[in-house]
Specification:
Elements lengths: L6 E6 L13 H7 L2 H6 L5 E6 L17 H20 L3 E6 L5 H15 L2 E7 L20 H5 L5 H4 L13 E6 L4 H10 L2 E4 H7 L1 H8 L7 E8 L21 H14 L2 E7 L10 H13 L9
Parallel strand pairs: 1-2, 1-3, 3-8, 4-5, 4-7, 5-6, 7-8
Length: 306
Amino acid sequence: MNAQPAISIIGAPTDIGAGDRGASMGPEALRVANIVTTLEGQGLEVIDRGNLSGPANPWQPPVDGYRHLTEVVTWNRLVHEAVHAELVQGRFPILLGGDHCLGLGSISAVARHCREAKKKLRILWLDAHADFNTNILTPSGNLHGMPVACLCGKGPKELVEIGGHVPAISPKWIRQIGIRSVDAGEKRFVHEMDLEVFDMRYIDEMGMRHAMELALATLDVNTHLHVSFDVDFLDPDYAPGVGTTVMGGPTYREAQLCMEMIADTGRMGSLDVMELNPALDVRNRTAEVAVDLIGSLFGKSTLMRK
């Protein structure tokens, strides 16, 4: 990655995979919180590509364990093509969600790009949830609880085949951080698939620094680092504006350290910012915290670091 990547912002205003309405307003809330000027203030060239336009949320019950499968497939294909197009041009895509089902389209595009460019891929999944459900395991049918499983080839054919390679990724490429809510059946599946998870107990015992050192270990010049940042990663005291709050998440300072350590690698090449729900927020506070943390991902720090 270049020291100063040219950034493309892509909005995906949908709550198609979520259990609450409102994440569709996330991209606009992040813009209101000055994501563009924050990044430009760090000397980065930023183009806002505007919002993708996909099907409306029909708000229907699940069919065969999936809610809104057809619409979720359409949105993820749109995201996949948009993210891949930016990577082909050598730009740094930031996807503004929208709910986290869109991580499937985004990460499958990054994986496709890495195959084409003969690069290794490392994915950091910053989230309160493992998002490793299937239609058999899910209590809700909401597809925002399934993108990691789909990326690993476990899901409906229409979703796992986005990107043209099944599975899109190996579970070995993912590091999940901040996890503290996993459904009963999902827990066994995460164990079977041998996902590397730094849950909140691990972070409590070992500290965020140690967790991040392990999550970022063995990155080299030929590794593309993708960060998928679900805003519910943060403790709800700092980020109330999400649909699925879970108490006991990282503090603001722990999250800052996490972002600064990612920035220090110089390897980040793409980013998702997901699940911000302004309808549940307080005066856009969660969007402002998210933008502040995104600034740190791009090297904002208190002092000049040696």
